Amino acid sequence: MSSTEALPSRLLGTIDRIPTSLEILAGPRSGRVGLPVRLAWSGPADFDIGDARERLTLYCLLLDCGQRSDIVQYVNATLLRQDWPRIRRLTARRVTRLWERRLPDLIAGDGRAAPSTAGDRFRRR
Fold first, then answer.
1. C-beta of residue 39 within 8 angstroms of C-beta of residue 65
2. CA gyration radius, the chain
């Protein structure tokens, strides 16, 4: 590749990784989840679904790096809807827009305007 050629977008293929329906998400509502090294190669690999911070870290990682089968296996639809206002502040806007276009139920009820809490340590990168 020459220095004048553009690199492909990191979003290439993202839409294909997003499930076609929230109903197919089969992730747990509680307990612990251990991710394979191919997903959690540079940080924690074990997440407590009952801990909101750990779950947000897990879900943001999966939205950014997971394949569709990973997302279906590890993400719970009810918890994703519940956490979506915070997830959309933690994940790249281009990614969350693709998710919202594919799964408009994520923003039903206009969860977008959810206020930050004083203890919220997560910030958009």
1. yes
2. 15
Q: Name the residue type at position 20.
A: T
Per-residue CA distances from 16 to 13, 93, 124 (Å) = 5, 17, 24
The rounded Cα 26 to chain-centroid distance in angstroms is 14
Structure tokens at 98: 């693709």
Longest dimension (CA), the chain: 49
What confidence tens digit (pLDDT) does each residue in 8-29 have?
566 667 889 999 999 999 999 9
Round to whole Å and give the CA distance between 23 and 3: 45
Ramachandran angles phi, psi of 33, nearest 5°: -125, 130
Q: How far is CA 57 from CA 4, 14, 20, 82, in A?
A: 36, 19, 22, 14
**Half-sphere exposure of residue 115, counting CA atoms within 13 Å on the CB side?**
3
Q: In this predicted model, what pLDDT tens digit does every residue of 71-96 receive, in sequence order?
A: 999 999 999 999 999 999 999 899 99
Q: What angle do CA 95, 100, 104 make, to 5 degrees?
A: 170
